[in-house]
Amino acid sequence: MSQILLWLRHPCHKYYMAIKHNSVKRKVPLVTKTKRMKLARTQWQLYLFLLLPIIYLILFKYVPMAGIQIAFKNFNARDGIWGSPWVGLKQFQNFFASYTFERVIGNTLRLSLYSILVGFPIPILFALILNSISQRKFKKTVQTVTYMPHFISVVVLVGIVLQILNPRIGLYGTLYSLLNNGASPPDPMGSATAFPHIYIWSGIWQNFGWGSIIYIAALSGVDMQLHEAAQIDGASRFQRVIHIDFPSILPTATIMLIMRTGHIMSIGFEKIYLMQNNLNLAASEIISTYVYKVGLSAGGNMNFSYSTAIDLFNSVVNLILIILVNYLAGKMSETSLW
């Protein structure tokens, strides 16, 4: 869509020139209401396919919103959602006043921003490097190898990490002992300082190849005549990457960054929970794991209202962030979600 908008705004486009010279007073819609109804009648099978995602959204996204009111009540199973007493913003106030508030918010932001700063540029750089490779077989082999870790389940990935970093029988412990005359190494999984690096870089290794697919697809649409013209002008391969390839994927990267920003406060629960222990809890306790412990864990308080209030606060912050970033992206460039 962004490529189409850029094409429509190009000075060489006759429609743009007509608007510029005020010969066109208003824009004519591409698809009129009558034509849209005709398409719906003649291609009803395609519209029928929309029923499945619409039903899914209604059942699993909109209907559960009725349970949000639990965050404003003192919920108990005997009275149910509708019969539980209303307490207003009490659950939110309890969370803001809790000693865990700063820790879980700080850890969530720290891990999320670390993941964006390090993990977001790597798929872009990898796609640019891979696109510059001329040997087709080698390129396909690298693509396949880098895509494969994405399909490893979270449980298996965490098991691999724990086995490699085991201080006694793992690769890390064995190499440390060999290089330090049999000395026992420190346990990296028990270190709050090492936890963010292990979590982020293991995720990058698993997902950077898969994340580069969309950028490789965008690069495949670059007009080769631009490269040929640049070569005639004496541009090197690096200069063509900087001035042709990178600008071509910049709109796609902007959209991906906006969408990623909408999940700053939402980090995957499963991986962190599996890597979490009492020694690294100071750095690994995030909003999602804290919500699980206070709301669903048998060892917690089973406080559904409190956990719902925390999760609602998290969702509102994400919504505000994605709106703000989308607005700034629209002001600073021509690319935005809406």
Describe this entry's structure for a reader:
This protein has a domain at 75-161 and 197-332: MetI-like fold (Orthogonal Bundle). It is built from 20 helices and no strands. It has 338 residues and is an all-alpha fold. The chain has helices at residues 2-8, 14-20, 33-42, 44-49, 51-62, 80-83, 90-97, 101-119, 121-131, 136-147, 154-164, 171-179, 195-211, 213-220, 224-232, 237-261, 269-275, 281-284, 287-295, 304-332.
Structural class of the secondary structure composition?
mainly alpha
Mean pLDDT: 83
Radius of gyration: 26 Å
Strand content: under 5%
Number of strands: 0
Q: Return the CATH topology of the domain at 75-161 and 197-332.
A: MetI-like fold
Helix tally equals 20
Highest CATH level, the class of the domain at 75-161 and 197-332: Mainly Alpha
- What is the N-to-C succession of helices and strands? HHHHHHHHHHHHHHHHHHHH
Measured distance between first and last alpha carbons? 11 Å
How would you name the CATH homologous superfamily of the domain at 75-161 and 197-332? MetI-like
Amount of helix:
55-70%
